[in-house]
Amino acid sequence: MSITEAFRVAWGAMLTHKMRALLTMLGIIIGVGAVVGMLAIGEGYSRWIDSEFTELGVGNFYVNPQVDSDDQDETLLPRLTSADAAAILAPGRAPAVESVVIELTRSGVVSAGGERFIFGVKGVTPGYFNIGDQELGDGRFFTDDEEQSGARVAVIGRIVAETLFGGIEGAVGQRVSINGVPFDVIGVSVAKQSQVAGAVGRFGDPGEQLYLPYSSARDRLFRNEIDTRVDLSSLTVKARDPQQIDEAIRQVTELLREEHRLTYQPNDFSITNPSQLASQFRAITVGFSAFLGTIGGISLLVGGIGIMNIMLVSVAQRTREIGLRKAVGAKQRDIMWQFLIEAVVLCLLGGLIGIGLGYLLSFGGTFLLYSISQDPNIRASVSLFSIILATSISAGVGIFFGLFPALRAARLDPIRALRNE
Q1: Pairing of strands 181-189, 153-157
Q2: How many CB atoms lie within 10 A of CB 265?
Q3: What number of CA atoms fall less than 13 Å from residue 236's CA on the CB side?
Q4: Which three-class secondary structure state does DSSP give residue 91?
Q5: Which residues contact 225 (CB under 8 A, 6 or more apart)?
Q6: How far is CA 401 from CA 31, 84, 355, in A?
């Protein structure tokens, strides 16, 4: 019997017992669907995590004034100042560092001559607007000269513009009061909030922020809220190359310990590397997908056992047919191929239906992920790898669990088989 003929006979046997075939394939369908769906959701979530961390800036890490110690040392106080930023940028001190951005984050009472509102206020150096995905809706960002001179200019977020001026259009050129100090609006930022920004200590919706030159915020607004040990909220350090980020972290750590005259004490600052956090997020995603994939694998195992059981029943029901085939010249390998291919066809068809189920699960996963993140860019996607994997698993299950019934059928004695009623 040729392979083509064996496929035809297998297909005919399935059509003869449609309900039995469907119930037999159910475990394969559920298992393959679960594997494909979970891989699609995990892949979509992993891509979203990568895009979110990319928005924070590739090759960046953050330095915060926080005692970096597991032991509570009450004698050690946090320390981080703008002088530290200058030291990092000094020639030869940290060669792996390209730039440093200072950020001083507070909140302020904001008005435009009418009702007062409380918004976030960030005093930043101009390099802040080159980090990640910063986009202007109107106007411009402030310059280095304006930062150094303490100019009273502001770039406001989209929500601030809508609240104070009814929209982005017309906001540029207006004047806002922050804690009673007037600032001229020179630009409107339409940057979107990153869903993972909180993981690196960057809280707050960008649309609800006002961005001022760091020197203006420090000297004009918050001079009573800072001291000689801490006059900023964080430093964003950009490595010259993303591959050098570990070296840049090492150099900055050694430099700051030297500047702060630390010997045996723990760091009085902390460093957060988004690349490591991204890897941790991906590891969690892979672990969760593996867990759900294991559940799918159990379904495949149960489905394979079901197929073996049905094939053994089929061999018992068709014993006389096997005897007749052997009597007219069929060899053992012909009988084995016939039943093995029937098992494989069952599994492959179940696998194809399972892939369709996996697509449906991916659509449901996309909706679920969107409801959690409110990000339209997060999308579960079925990859070619998952389809090939599902097809291979289906064929493998058919061969593994169909081999024993096929061998049993092939080894039947033709005389006893013909006598079977």
Answers
A1: parallel
A2: 14
A3: 22
A4: coil
A5: 106
A6: 15, 67, 20
Alpha-carbon distance of 41 to 49, in angstroms, equals 12
Question: Higher pLDDT residue, 35 or 282?
Answer: 35
Tell me the one-letter amino acid at 117. Answer: F
Query: What's the gap between Cα 301 and its chain centre?
Result: 30
Q: At what angle do helices 384-410 and 274-317 cross, to 10 degrees?
A: 30
- What CA–CA distance (Å, rounded) separates 250 from 261? 16
Distance between alpha carbon 179 and the CA centroid of its chain, in Å? 40
Contact (CB, 8 A) for 67 and 268: yes
Answer yes or no: pTM beyond 0.85. no
What pLDDT score does 199 carry? 47
Q: Indicate if the pLDDT at residue 342 is higher than 50.
A: yes
* HSE, side-chain direction, 13 A CA sphere, residue 184: 11
Q: Which amino acid is at 359?
A: Y
Q: Residue 302: its pLDDT value, please? A: 77
Q: In the 8-state DSSP scheme, what is residue 27? A: H
- SS3 at position 209: strand
| CB neighbour list of residue 159: distance below 8 Å, 6 or more residues apart | 205, 207, 208
CA dihedral sign, ordered 273, 276, 278, 281:
negative
User: Which DSSP string do the residues of 166-186 spell out, in sequence order?
Assistant: SSSTTTTT-EEEETTEEEEEE
pLDDT digits (tens, 9 = 90+) for 33-43: 888 887 787 77
pLDDT tens column, 242-254: 888 889 999 999 9
Residue 232 tokens read as: 């900023």
Closest to 348 measured CA to CA, from 37, 28, 17 = 28
Strands 153-157 and 97-111: unpaired
- Mean pLDDT of all residues in 174-200: 79
CB 80 within 8 A of CB 232: yes
Check pLDDT > 60 for residue 384. Answer: yes
The SS3 assignment for 409 reads helix
> How would residue 224 be classed by pLDDT, with cut points 50, 70 and 90?
confident
Q: What are phi and psi of 138, to 5 degrees?
A: -165, 155
Residue matched to tokens 């197929």: 307
Residue with tokens 């294991």: 294
Answer for the pair 207, 135: CB distance below 8 angstroms, yes or no. no
The two beta strands, 209-213 and 117-124, are: parallel
